[in-house]
Amino acid sequence: MAVPRLPLVLLLLLSFALGSAGQEAQDTGERIINGVVCPRGSHPWQVALYDKNGFQCAGVLVNQQWVLTVAHCYQSEYIVQMGSDLPVDARAQRIRAIQSFIHHRYNNHTDDHDIMLVKLCSPARLSPTVNTIDLPSSCKDPGTSCTVSGWGVTTKDGEKGLSELMCSNVNLISYEHCKVFYPTMLKKYMLCAAPPDRLSSCCSGDSGSPLICEGSLQGLVSTGFFPCTPPFDPVIYTRLCMYRKWVYKTMKANS
User: Fold this and answer.
1) 27 is catalytic
2) Prior bond to 227 cis, omega within 30?
3) Helix H or strand E segment including 99
4) pTM of the model
5) Which of 24, 115, 149, 152 has its CA 20 to 30 A from that of 135?
6) How many whole angstroms separate alpha carbon 93 and alpha carbon 111?
7) What is the DSSP string of 127-168?
8) Is residue 174 flagged as an active site residue?
9) 109 is catalytic
10) Per-residue pLDDT reduced to its tens digit, 157-195
11) CB 152 within 8 A of CB 162
């Protein structure tokens, strides 16, 4: 049976209801359930976006002054943390961001074209723990092995708060297979992936978390689903190979 797609506001309310009352950070982050801690420093391009309410989303550094994330994470201002696998780290690099550029075809009711660029107020200082990642030059095929990484609660009931960066192995699945679960998904601009054993996956939130397939950045977590219980259904990602021209054009026009 297909899992219904829930509005983002309802997802957040459900996540908050399940979370611990005393959590410092909001439970709006990706739930990597039954995953493993990512190798330390293996994702130097992954960043965490915070606003006054705490952790909001993940993203990736595609340029020293630009972060790529998803449009439904939009806030007027962020503090972007990079250079650490921990959600809060006094040694991490933090840079303010007050400009965001949402894709002109983004639909906040369906999350079509769910992609956004965030411009940092000052360039990131590159180092072994802070680096950029290239956009994909081609799209990967169904069956490709991938890894999704994210911060956030690691249990389906939300008892554990933000943790170290967690990883989960997933495989790309075909549009035809994914359409069974999500009849309205856009074929060209969305990507589906699911864990091979359906026992480890991400869930509602950690929007913007990257999907890396054979060393290539292929997607960002877009649409969340609820409840988060195995066997897990596929997760929808923004298919980045379709947005290469838009990203470069937007950065050039606003540099």
Assistant:
1) no
2) yes
3) strand 93-102
4) 0.82
5) 152
6) 30
7) BTTB---PPPSSPPPTT-EEEEEE-S--STT--S-S-S-EEE
8) no
9) no
10) 444 456 789 888 899 999 999 998 888 888 899 999 988
11) yes
